């Protein structure tokens, strides 16, 4: 797990956007896993800027979103399909037919979950999965107690998540209590994960995820079992990490490798 700490959410989002852009440039036919919520907004606006100003080409990219609220039609302003159109898809040249957000109005969620998994497999699996994290340590809507082997299915939102998301709906009462979500097992199968977290309200969840035990009580901690995870944090979200000094060391080692300058080797 690589932990990158930037001074601000803006700097962290630019760093994350560079990672996504590098993949899209190297592998124009690729499958991205995407998240919604407040956290990836700046990442998406940076990708839009890269598309508009630098010609970043999404024409052959396929996307799969993590989750969707049950019962909300795509036209609902708080549906995740609406969010993705407004904050990313409408501003880049992705083919909308290649964008997938779970259908919150599916009638048979068990069958639909299997179908979504099959669609991901048919697309060759997810190359890079963008993730946020809940204050209760969830990834996607895998609330505490979710099986770490879970697949796409229906989940009940935890009370913390309902409270956190009330800001988007105007009141707690209006927040849907059910969502269809990729499982932890689905996420662990993506080839790379890129988790973003900003703000002091994420600091406990981030410390538990990176430095705590792997536990279904903090589903993001399952990422410790994944072989290629990058966490991009701002200072506030990183504030409770005990091994901060080491993460900074790793980053300066990466810079040394990039520049080829190893200070412990005397120049001749
Ligand atoms: C959204 C999602 C959720 C959010 C998490 C953080 O698709 O899967 O796990 O990433 O709830 O939400 P924000 O970014 O609003 O703090």
Please give the order of strands in the largest beta sheet.
Answer: 1-10-9-6-2-3-5
CATH fold-level topology: Rossmann fold
- Return the domain count: 1
Distance between the termini: 35 Å
How is the biggest beta sheet arranged?
7 strands, parallel
Helix content: 25-40%
The overall strand count is 10
One letter per element, helices H and strands E, the order comes to EHEHEEHEHEEHEHEHEHH
Q: Taking Cα atoms only, what radius of gyration do you get, to the nearest Å?
A: 18 Å
Can you give the mean pLDDT? 96
Secondary structural class:
alpha/beta
Q: Which CATH architecture would you pick?
A: 3-Layer(aba) Sandwich
Q: Provide the list of bound ligands, each named once.
A: fructose -6-phosphate
DSSP helix count? 9
Instruction: Tell me the name of the CATH class.
Output: Alpha Beta
Strand composition percent: 15-25%
Give unreliable regions as ranges.
none
Overall, the morphology is: globular
Pathway: Amino-sugar metabolism; N-acetylneuraminate degradation; D-fructose 6-phosphate from N-acetylneuraminate: step 5/5
Family: Belongs to the glucosamine/galactosamine-6-phosphate isomerase family. NagB subfamily.
Function: Catalyzes the reversible isomerization-deamination of glucosamine 6-phosphate (GlcN6P) to form fructose 6-phosphate (Fru6P) and ammonium ion.
Enzyme class: hydrolase
């Amino acid at each position: 797990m690589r932990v990158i700490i930037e001074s601000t959410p803006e700097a962290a989002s630019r760093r994350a956007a560079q990672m996504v852009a590098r993949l899209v440039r190297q592998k124009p036919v690729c499958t991205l896993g995407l998240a919604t919520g407040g956290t990836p907004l700046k990442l998406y606006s940076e990708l839009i800027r890269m598309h508009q100003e630098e010609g970043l080409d999404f024409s052959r990219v396929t996307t799969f979103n993590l989750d969707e609220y049950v019962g909300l039609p795509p036209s609902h302003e708080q549906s995740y399909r609406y969010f993705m159109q407004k904050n990313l898809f409408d501003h880049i040249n992705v083919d909308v037919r290649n964008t997938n957000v779970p259908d919150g109005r599916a009638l048979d969620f068990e069958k639909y979950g299997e179908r979504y998994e099959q669609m991901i497999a048919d697309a060759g699996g997810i190359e890079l999965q963008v993730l946020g994290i809940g204050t209760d340590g969830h990834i996607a809507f895998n609330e505490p107690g979710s099986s770490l082997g879970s697949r796409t299915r229906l989940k009940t939102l935890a009370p913390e998540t309902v409270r956190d998301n009330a800001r988007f709906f105007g009141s707690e009462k209006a927040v849907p209590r059910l969502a269809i979500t990729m499982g932890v097992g689905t996420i662990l199968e993506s080839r790379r994960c890129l988790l973003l977290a900003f703000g002091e309200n994420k600091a406990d969840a981030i410390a538990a995820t990176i430095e705590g035990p792997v536990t279904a009580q903090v589903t993001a901690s399952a990422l410790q079992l994944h072989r290629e995870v990058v966490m991009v944090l701002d200072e506030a979200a990183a504030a409770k990490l005990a091994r901060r000094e080491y993460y900074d060391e790793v980053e300066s080692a990466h810079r040394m490798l990039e520049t080829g300058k190893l200070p412990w080797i005397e120049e001749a």
